Every structure is written in C-alpha cells, then in structure tokens.
C-alpha cells in the first residue's frame, strides 16, 4: 500500500505574504494516480492570534472549532488539478494573522483509494499593512544652506524611523 504525496508550494513555509489570491501545490501517486481535484483536500487554521478553522467556502470565515478537510472541487473554492499541480482560491484572511495550510490526497486504488497519512503543512503570516516610516532629519520646512556655521542649519545627517509588526527587511531613501 503506497500513499499519494501532496505538498503546498505557495505560499512558502514560514513566509510573510502581503497579497495572495490562490494557494498552490502538487499531488501525485506513482502507482494508481490521482484523477481529479475531488481527491485533493485542504484545511486552513488561524494559528495566531486565533486558533479557529476555516469553514471551507470562499470568501468564508474562520469559525470552525475542529479541523475539516475540504476537496478542491467543492462549491466556491475554484479548485483545479492539472498534471500534478493543484490550486484553489484563498478565503478571506485577516491582516496580522498566522495561518497553517494542510493538504492531503487520495489516490485511485480500489476500493476507496489510499488516503495520505503523512499530511503536509506550511505556515505563513498574512501581512497587508505597510510599515510605518518617518523622517527625523531634515525637518520639514527647515532651511539648510548658507548658515552652515549654525548647528541647526547644518545638514550633516539624513535620518528617519521605520517599524513593522513583523520586521523591516530594508529601508531606502529616494
């Protein structure tokens, strides 16, 4: 008895995502194959700050109290499975939340198919809020120039601040 193997390929594990319209992955079975999107099922959980489960519809809610797997061909998911690649539409996500996506596949073996037990999962943060930035120096409407001997009018440094709940990877001045 060989089980199928499925994986989430986007979003990447432990990533921070600011925009996402679909979740994608792969699923395959070397012996009996996987025939359709109905044989691939997904589960999404809010990991932090909440712990609720997705209700399986798009746009949907995260009000479930236990994990349920929903087949990609279900109702509003817009799921597809072509070759070994699958995808489905993302439910409504909340800014600043961490999510866990799990996927499992069932192959074509008769009777009933082999269901994947080594379930693949990834975790990502949905971060749609841009960082906060501020200019410290030069001061707005301050003249810097000919009075360079005056400390307040000498521009020896350009400085500012930047902050974000999930960190700053770089800052630039244009």
Notes on the structure:
This protein has strands at 5-10, 15-17, 22-28, 40-48, 70-71, 80-82, 85-89, 97-105, 120-126, 132-137, 159-163. By secondary structure, it is mostly beta strands. Strand 6 (80-82) and strand 7 (85-89) form a beta hairpin.
Task: Label this structure with key terms.
single chain, 174 residues, mainly beta, five-stranded mixed beta sheet
Secondary-structure topology with pairs:
Blueprint: E1 5-10, E2 15-17, E3 22-28, E4 40-48, E5 70-71, E6 80-82, E7 85-89, E8 97-105, E9 120-126, E10 132-137, E11 159-163
Parallel strand pairs: 2-9
Antiparallel strand pairs: 1-3, 3-7, 4-5, 4-8, 6-7, 8-9, 10-11
What is the general shape? elongated
Mean pLDDT: 91
End-to-end distance = 60 Å
Structural class: mainly beta
Counting DSSP H or I runs of 4 or more residues, the number of helices is 0
* Model regions low in confidence, pLDDT < 50 over at least 5 residues: none
Gist?
The protein is mainly β and 174 residues long.
């Amino acid at each position: 008895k060989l089980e199928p193997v499925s994986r989430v390929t986007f979003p990447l594990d432990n990533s921070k995502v600011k925009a996402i319209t679909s979740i994608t992955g792969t699923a395959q079975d070397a012996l009996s194959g996987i025939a359709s999107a109905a044989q691939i099922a997904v589960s999404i959980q809010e990991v932090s700050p909440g712990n609720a489960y997705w209700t399986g519809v798009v746009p949907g809610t995260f009000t479930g109290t236990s994990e349920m797997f929903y087949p990609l061909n279900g109702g509003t998911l817009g799921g597809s499975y072509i070759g070994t690649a699958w995808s489905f539409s993302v439910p409504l996500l909340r800014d600043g939340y961490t999510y866990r996506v799990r996927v499992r596949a069932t192959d074509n073996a008769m009777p009933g198919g082999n269901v994947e037990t080594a379930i693949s999962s990834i975790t990502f943060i949905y971060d749609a809020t841009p960082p906060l930035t501020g200019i410290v120096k030069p001061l707005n409407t301050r003249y810097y120039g000919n009075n360079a001997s005056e400390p307040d009018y000498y521009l020896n440094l350009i400085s500012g601040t930047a902050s974000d709940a999930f960190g700053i990877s770089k800052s630039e001045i244009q």
